[in-house]
Prior knowledge:
The chain is 4% helix and 45% strand. It has 1 helix and 9 strands. The strands form 2 sheets. Strands 1, 2, 4, 5, 8 and 9 form a 6-stranded mixed β-sheet that branches. Strands 3-7-6 form a 3-stranded antiparallel β-sheet.
Amino acid sequence: MTTALDPGYLGYQPKVEPLKLTTGASFVQTIEPSGGAVFPAGTTVSIVITAPGGAPLGTWAATVTTTAAKWTVPAITCDAIPTNSRYTMLVTYLTSPVTTYAWYVGSVIRN
């Protein structure tokens, strides 16, 4: 049973959003921590992409600073990703032990 105070699941719940890729265009994205927060030193953020059948297609690592995670993935790389592939954005903090969260998940859609 779920209630307003009990969301009905255990564990961290990632945001579910599509990853929109446009044929012929690079993937350019910047994510900034909200509310004046910063990424701690050593934080990594990556987008892991799998084909519709689950086969790995690649990992796109962000350039991470204290204030942003940024990607610029060339069009030739993006164009090879088929519609209905899946992605998971993973953020890893250098805690002890290392902590990795699935920050975003979803399907790849194409323009």
